[in-house]
Amino acid sequence: MSMTFVSQRIVLLSALLPVLAPAANITFTAATGNYNAGANWGGGVVPGTGDTAFIHSSRVATHSAGVTTTDSVRLGANNGVSSGGGAMGTGTLEVTGGTLEFNAGDPYRDSSGTINVNGGTLLQTGGNTRMAHRNGSVDTVNVTAGTLTNTSRTSGENGAWSLNVSGGTAEYVGSHFDAAVNPDAGDTDPDTFAINQSGGTLRFGTTNPVRPAGRAGSNSTITQTGGTLVTDATTRIDLATAATGTVVWDVSGMSVINIGDDLNSGVGIATFNVIGSDPLITVADDFNFSSAASTVSFVMDAAGVSTINAADVLFSNGPALEVVVNNGLVTPGPLGFGGTGSVDLFSYSGSQSGTFGSESIQYNGRLLTLDADPSGNAAALAPDSYFLDYDNAGNVSLLFHVVPEPSRALLLGFAGALLALRRRR
Questions:
Q1: What integer is the mean pLDDT of 375-402?
Q2: Does residue 419 sit in helix, strand or coil?
Q3: How many structural domains compose the chain?
Q4: Which residues have a Cβ under 8 Å from the Cβ of 392 and sit 6 or more positions away?
């Protein structure tokens, strides 16, 4: 076979093969506009497989239709240089329709900006998703409709980031969700993580525990006023796994919590606040608060409290209990001078072990004192006292006997006397 013939075949095959463009950094150049319009990108090309999209200088790119796959996006960063919230400002990515997928190993590295999922689907399928990667960076994820699905390992880094869900579905189903950022020595930035949920569904299906504050000095908050937070059957939540990590979880309104495995305080500073009687809280396995620095708190409304339902309820190392008793729960005594009440704080289908290390039960700003076991009869308690029954037919129950403040007692007494006088007439 002649060399000329071989060369001709090579040239012919080369012509038939597709031309593979090298990976590129492509910058969104419009102030605001369509993500899929080439005219809105430098070079007139929409970022595709292998490319990195850059959205900075307060620009807003909106993906509204079609299916687009890109390696990664940098918000507030310019060609690989982190803005840290600095000269390049921030960028915003909005998904209102279609499907946008980032499949690189680190889709948001060096970013500082906002991701809005208002419809459609945003997929994050790479190996790692590092939020708030640089010191000073601030990342915000808002889900109001549509679906955000993250199958990668998610972690917070060195800035601050928040996940806000008011509608739609946000699901993190990769190997890890280590949300808390990593405070650096001498770093004065607000290194924090926050979940704010008022609606929609937030689902965790990670193969390792969900850790809101897994690093020393990390500071996280979870605020639920509505919506559903759920974990898969093999996914537990470990709130503060570092001794100096801090997590405050407030649950109120029509919130639903359904933990498929355990809910653990960890060894750090974990506070779980249950506000009112509307939330529904279920833990399929253990509710385990095992840190002396942890607290479980209940604030009653006129209908009582939301009972924490779990298979097993475990207290060890002296966690704290705080309860604020509401006026509407009290069954008045003669002329309204004080009354009694009882609520179930925990309900367990399996077992209960351990006790709280401290108990702070308040009524109208004053502390009630612990009394002897009244054998289930709150009326047998001394005035302004309480008893915590750890074994009340599968419940941990609070019984109390309160006396109104003097001004209220006088008013109630006067009303009662006036009523009696009218009856005589």
A1: 94
A2: helix
A3: 1
A4: 344, 376
